[in-house]
Amino acid sequence: MAAVARIRGDRAVGVAVIWPSPVGNLTIIAGHDGLEQIHFGEFVGLLLARGEKVAEGVIRQLAEYFAGQRRQFDVKLAPKGTPFQLAVWRALQDIPYGETRSYAEIAHTIGRPSATRAVGAANGANPIPIIIPCHRVIGSNGSLTGFGGGLNVKRQLLDLEMGGQLKMWA
Predict the structure, then answer these.
(1) I need a surface site. Which of 4, 95, 117, 152 has the fewest CB within 10 A?
(2) 3-state secondary structure of 23
(3) Which residues are catalytic?
(4) pLDDT at 47 over 50
(5) Alpha carbon separation from 35 to 9, 38, 122, 137 (Å, rounded)
(6) What are the Cα distances from residue 30, in Å, to 45, 52, 66, 111, 139?
(7) Is the confidence at residue 74, as pLDDT, over 50?
(8) Which residues 6+ apart lie within 8 Å of 76 measured at CB?
(9) Phi and psi at residue 105, in whole multiples of 5°?
């Protein structure tokens, strides 16, 4: 685990931790208000220095998730986005563990049935993947569609949730 500081003015604003998860390194960014971002790989564009308790809780819950012992997260979230994006991300959190929804279903859920493409864009901009489960959104025809961690990781996450074990793909 590595944490690095970013100073805004003269005060630290959060913590960035690189955690070696079963699907590769995840950079977890947490601030005073809660979890702000999860990036696949080692993300060095944002470096922060407070929020250690939040980051520790996130890592514990992610480890339990990957071990098949956690189906819901109870981490305080603090994603930043437009009102539309926030509505989409709230809808994603209502998709039950082990289930999927299409972009069209999410658009309908948030009361914007013609906004399927915008839902796709908001899904792709999700700053907290896995915990805000954008991997549970698939194409209307059942196909796996884009994912920030790559389709291989999306498939691994869905396999974990549907089969109870994390399968490593080549």
Answers:
(1) 117
(2) coil
(3) 134
(4) no
(5) 21, 8, 18, 21
(6) 14, 8, 20, 31, 31
(7) yes
(8) 33, 34, 35, 54
(9) -65, -40
